[in-house]
Amino acid sequence: MTQRPGTKGLIFNEPNVWDKSREGRCAISLPKADVERSPLDPALTGDTPNLPQLSELDVVRHYTRLSQWNFGVDSGMYPLGSCTMKYNPKTNEVQAARQGFAGAHPLAGDECSQGALRLMYDLERSLAEITGFDAVTLQPAAGAHGELTGMLIIHAYHAKQGRQRSKIIIPDTAHGTNPASATLCGYKSVNLKSGPKGILEPEAVAEIMDEETAGIMITNPNTLGLFEENIKEICEIVHAKGGLVYGDGANMNAIMGVVQPGKLGIDVLHLNLHKTFSTPHGGGGPGSGPVAVNEKLTPFLPVPRVEKELDTFKFVTDCPDSIGRLHTFYGHFGVMIKAYAYILTMGAQGLLDTSRLAVLNANYIKESLKGTLNLPYDRPCMHECVFNDAKQQEYHISTMDMAKRLLDYGFHPPTVYFPLVVDGAFMVEPTETESKEDIDQFIDAVKAIAKEAQTDPEKLTSAPVLPKVTRLDEVAAARKPCLRG
Amino acid sequence: MRYLPHTQEDIQKMLAVAGAGSLDDLFKTIPDAVKVKDGLNLPEPMSEWELNDYMEKLASENIACKGYTCLIGAGSYDHYIPAIIPYLVSRSEFATAYTPYQPEVSQGTLQGIYEFQTMVTDLLGMDIATASHYDCGTALAECALIALRKNKKADKIAVSDLVHPSHREIIDTYLKPSGYEMVLIPHTKDGLTDMTALEAMDGIAGVAVQSPNFFGHIEDLAAVKKVADAKKILFITSFTEALAWGILKNPGSFGADLVAGEGQSLGIAKTFGGPGLGLLAGTSKLMRDLPGRLVGRAKDSNGDDGYVLTLSTREQHIRRERASSNICSNNGLNAMTAAMYLSTIGKIGIREIAQLNHDKAMYLKSALAGAGFEPVFDPPFFNEFVMKAPRDFNRKRIDLINRQCVFAGLDLAPYYPELTDHYLFCATEKVSKQQMDQLAKEVA
To answer: What residues does the Glycine cleavage system P-protein N-terminal domain cover (chain B) (predicted)?
Structure first.
């Protein structure tokens, strides 16, 4: 086989930061006091927090070593399904770090913030064009926050109609956060099974859609990586009963320039800037989850809104039907800059090519591995494909074992055990930025691991051996939680 | 496009394997009727140097491009960020990683966040801190929801009207659809939360008081605790200036049940208000009620120490319908930044910086008083305070912005209509005596 990216190397040990601490060290140059001391009343003051005491090199070495224990997109292929771990262009970071942006105070006032407002306005317009909706808010701080925003909008819409509804339909191929977002608005989730082809059937929707149902939350392309072919018909069924259609746009990376969800009958949709628009996920965030709506729902968008008057921009809060405010200021502006830089760099053709090549890479992997791993839904996929461990179970090898073994080969594993609709799911999303050579290496690695499952299963069950730590006992950690040092 | 690696030859070979004749063929499951016909209407793509010019032009339309003197806080603070912080946090192994679902190759993020949790619990005097939230406002709204879930008989939450106005709006947004209500506790003429008004309130599940409050005043948290205990409700407290805990008695020492805070002051750039860092801490009794992620210690198969995301049975991706919070992404990279900052300033630095903030703010207050400003409130404060301005101040203030890029205070009238001509000032370690003297001269 070709050479593996994973190999052995020197891994530095690094203690906890407080174990490095020595009384009297400090890594910041403290400014000279040029005004007199004004001691606070001792009744108000407390003990100094027991922070570590380090030199500057101690700090630099500590975090440099920690970073070396992490796998990022810049380290290697990261085919985490539904998470769209594409390359994060470095120029985006340069743009966000500009003094005029990074140093901007949120309450400086509209006149002093025209550049930021113009950027937000133009980004909103670009996202509206890409999604085919009328209006966009950039305020939600993450995808799940966008979902909540969307559900609040649906709730406010029904309240305005004069009658609240009690239920939301959620297909089994939807994202995991969807039901919780509905719950936060007081809705009961109604589960809907997808059909034998892995997509929703209009008849099934028609059967449960009634006038108590506020709407449906559809992930499209869904978490099986399949396009919901009947989307238009489903939207008509839901609308006929007075419901609204929520589109989870986390998988927009497959359809930019191909389909505009707003033109399909979907009423409200969220995007993940940290997925589709190439902003880094930061090991947990910050993300950004803009929400796009059609004209009917525009009055309900959160405040403040950015408006343009001639060539000046301002924040507007006087929107009587608005759901209100969802962030202390205006959302994750730093993330917006990066996404906007990406759109400006790609243009219409670049975004279309992105989707085409993301879909090409996923289909190439699907076809290349379907003899090796079981493929529960053998249909043309979008930007991700879902296998499972049905073939490996014979050797008592699970999806998790294969995922852990992939670490030794130098790949970040795919998403495992999600979507729930597939038992033992192994969900691969290569993204468009992976080259054929890197994908071929990944395919070879999976094939080699499948062979090991038959000939040397212990290699898998005892994997990984190369990372800093071997397989961690998450169950024991949850049973007796230790959450601080 | 330079981010797309495929050669024409690659595409042909891969299409052949995928069993498609062309790239368009890959989309044949999408009905033609719903496809985009004429392409997206977006500007022509820019080269990297064109992008630089364009973005710099946009950035220069913000006053911040000129390195202004920032004397406003109100939830976003102008502190010095040591050079090593952006340098270390931009290491791509931190920045380009996803949520640490595979702990064996995420020990850097996991240990870093575990240390962050430890530092936050120490800073606030609490048992448990989460791995971060979006900002203080959303963290505070989550606290309100916890209180309402814990005290099922009550459907109201009491919130001081000196909690940041945006945070109160967020709580309102979060509560509205479930039929819960936020009731405001008024403030006294001293600019502090009115405890007698709180005492008179019934049917509340919890009380939320910010300290230092929106006027910068240090609240009597011991008094809040007393009322909360008497009413058997949850005591929630919030803050927007994390460095205050370098010197002030922390919320844990007053017996707070839940603390929501903004961590932007800890090495994070203002960036027009986001991303910041939502902090959320609680007592161990509330461990399973806290929304969001937690990192815990674990052992690997060799018995060595490591870290994992833990207690995930509380979370949406497992409980789906029964999950009480939908939080998924957090502000992990900013949590890492805060940990780096706290490690850098350390025990010595945090006390000194906190003291300096207070010293500068006291100096600015007296300098303004000398220039004809009226100190309307008297309680002790950390680094923010309110002053009533002379009549012609607003004109001078705009002039100062335009001429010298000095931002002299935040007009309070939009937030508290009764406070026309009142301004909220903030001084941090970055403002010099000379700048403050100059300001006093200009506005006198």
So the answer is: 1-441
Q: Which fold has domain B84-342?
A: Aspartate Aminotransferase; domain 2 (3.40.640)
Of B42, B99, B358, the CB nearest to A129: B42
The B residues from 378 to 407 touching A (CB cutoff 8 Å) are 380, 401, 407
> Per-residue confidence at A420, pLDDT binned at 50, 70, 90?
confident
pLDDT value of position A175: 80
Rounded Cα–Cα distance for residues B230 and A268 (Å): 46
Q: Are strands B156-160 and B204-210 parallel, antiparallel or unpaired?
A: parallel
Model confidence pLDDT, tens digit, residues B222-262: 999 999 999 999 999 999 999 999 999 999 999 999 999 99
User: What ipTM describes this predicted complex?
Assistant: 0.97
Going by C-alpha positions, the residue among A240, A244, A291 that lies closest to residue A267 is A244
pLDDT digits (tens, 9 = 90+) for A109-150: 999 999 999 999 999 999 999 999 999 999 999 999 999 999
As a residue count, chain B comes to: 444
Q: Is B30 in contact with A350 (Cβ distance < 8 A)?
A: no
Mean pLDDT of A54-73: 98
User: Which of A101, A259, A343 has its CB closest to that of B271?
Assistant: A101
Which amino acid is it at B93? E
CB-based contact A35 B332, cutoff 8 Å: no
Inter-chain CB proximity B302 and A470 less than 8 Å: yes
Optimal mutation site among B326, B394, B433, interface A, most CBs of chain A within 10 A: B326
For residues B136 and B189, is the Cβ–Cβ distance under 8 A? no
pLDDT, tens digit (0-9, with 9 covering 90-100), for B355-384? 999 999 999 999 999 999 999 999 999 999
> Which residue of B63, B97, B356 is in closest CB contact with A283?
B97
Contact B329 A286 (CB under 8 A): yes
> Which has the closest alpha carbon to A120: A394, A335, A409, A323?
A335
Option in B11, B60, B102 nearest A115 (CB): B60
**CB < 8 Å to B42, chain A:** 126, 129-130, 343, 347-348, 351
Per-residue pLDDT for B315 more than 90? Answer: no
* CATH 3.40.50.170 correct for B69-81+347-443: no
Contact flag A282-B94 (C-beta cutoff 8 Å): yes
Q: pTM, whole model, 2 decimals? A: 0.97
Q: Domain segments of chain B: what residues? A: 69-81+347-443, 84-342
Residue type, A110: D
Ranges of H-type helices in A132-230? 143-161, 178-183, 202-208
Q: Which chain B residues have a beta carbon less than 8 Å from that of A367?
A: 17-19
Q: Please provide residue B62's backbone torsions phi and psi, each rounded to the nearest 5 degrees.
A: -95, 140
